[in-house]
Fold:
Amino acid sequence: MVSLKDVAQRAGVSRSAVSRTFTEGASVAPATRARVVEAAEALGYRPNLLARSLTTRTTGLIGLVSNNFRNPAFLEIFDLFTRGLQERGLRPLLVNLTDEVDPARSVGLLRQYSVDGVIVASSTLPTAFARAFREAGLPTVLAFGRVAGEAGVDVAAIDNVAAGRLAAETLLARGYRRLGFLGGPEGATTTIDRLAGFRAVAGDVRHRFAAAYSFEAGRDAMRAELDGLAEAYFCGDDVLSIGALSALRDAGRSVPEDVGLIGLNDMAMAGWDNIRLTTIRQPFAEIVGGALDLLGDLLRTPDKAPEVRVYPCALVERDTLRRPS
Amino acid sequence: MVSLKDVAQRAGVSRSAVSRTFTEGASVAPATRARVVEAAEALGYRPNLLARSLTTRTTGLIGLVSNNFRNPAFLEIFDLFTRGLQERGLRPLLVNLTDEVDPARSVGLLRQYSVDGVIVASSTLPTAFARAFREAGLPTVLAFGRVAGEAGVDVAAIDNVAAGRLAAETLLARGYRRLGFLGGPEGATTTIDRLAGFRAVAGDVRHRFAAAYSFEAGRDAMRAELDGLAEAYFCGDDVLSIGALSALRDAGRSVPEDVGLIGLNDMAMAGWDNIRLTTIRQPFAEIVGGALDLLGDLLRTPDKAPEVRVYPCALVERDTLRRPS
DNA sequence: CATATTTTTGCAAGCGGTTGCAAGGGCTGG
DNA sequence: CCAGCCCTTGCAACCGCTTGCAAAAATATG
Structure:
């Protein structure tokens, strides 16, 4: 591995000189810079960012932590995050927290790698995680989590209570009466909020929680609903809806005539011609962009007051709900 | 940030002593170790891995590079890779190479972050990338790429030529005669190989390439096929198949009676009750495990001869192909 | 108990960089 | 031609940690 010293030697200058030609805004004479650049190129030199981080105290590493590796929506989200980070000169260190229950271990890990900040991209990770990161002094932003009451953490997300209300209002407006809620994992804040919003409008409806955001979980949950079916359901997520849809069709119920279904997310798949799920759209790109902006602010001014950005969600009309009359 | 020195001071020992209590197999007296551990705990000390890497020359960072952020199969793959790496004490630095065309830039990036190795997880990234990484001295393993002729790079993947043959044989065995190939991106080695295998059995069939592994690309490609439709198609990938399926049903063609369809991958979605795609299964978990084992070997013995692990693929019977008579 | 041997320990240098500081050099203006 | 100023440059220290080496301490041996 070629280092600063090698370049300095070859260019006939001091190590400082070559360091300076590679650091923004340092004072080097054009002539020496040229010599250094030439030597560097000849040797194929690139500064070692991790060594540099030792003195600059910034690594450019961002922990991208999630536990949603089953839900295709998150592939879109990872795509947006990784590209966004790359555009900002940052590198995502991916942390898969599936099955992890102890925030302290994740904190240790992120600190050991001196990440500059962390993005928690999850709708189901207990809020203790984001909070633990923040308390460990890591600039943290939570994306796709709960927007209220997460004292001390920046958040970019939709208002899940409002989404729940919108779902209920929509179902009622379409003439469905006995409503049901088929939510995601029971403990998740987003599930709780969506149910709360839904109930605020629809009253104390029947509800059931799926074990995960997965097709199978949605299908199984809807199967369990089959006796005593409501007229229409708000599903916690599109992939859950698709599972539910499958269970309904299997059982010979027609959607949207017999049963209405509305999802949440509007992931790419929801629009596929053979699915055409009516759903509530989460503006992924905007949320991710917002989360990245928040992170950028936080990196610049580490002790700025936490900020919450709430993004509007909107109904996307497709074929699993009756049209308004 | 608490450092070695702070702990040393508090424990009343030298910095070396505390360093040694945190490095495997170093000589420290039980008593001092205890004092150090206590001080470390009181201070919340964790060794800085990046500083350590400066002398040990190993970071535990692995570049996980891909350009497949549209294909849900890759979410499963990322899940497997990240968990597998974590189990081995390694950390994935995620690199999104969508739209990147210059291997040199990626090489620079990976070297700047001193990754210990890199996993190229892609079926469509030009082979120049994996090769460039290897030539830059980075232990590299290619997963889901071409298994033959990639001189100098470890590979874990299926034999795409064999997969193409299997597809053609299956279609013929089911009584379909005029066959068609609806492949993924035209330049990709995997596409080329699958087509080659398919043709080796089916002869010089009609073929068309989709622009990407996406639903829309599959649907559009199949739409373009509609006049002059073959009797059965081998699609480059499940998500492409699902798009194709949608185009066919839209056009009033029944699958599998009018037209047969066979995909490749057997991603979770292919088995969903409302899709039920007949497909050829790529054993994701085995391939990922193999890639990780290869990487492990490579990290241990950096100049071992490149090795290729080929995994068998198998037909998964569902509803888009006639049953054998 | 003295000596030989083994462990444990601290020192100091080094990993690949950055940066404050003071000295050196080139220009300008008078 | 000289003083004064500013831009460049190298020195040396430091970032947090590891490690070879030799001295010190502990243990074993006769």
Observations:
- Chain B is about 45% helix and 15% strand.
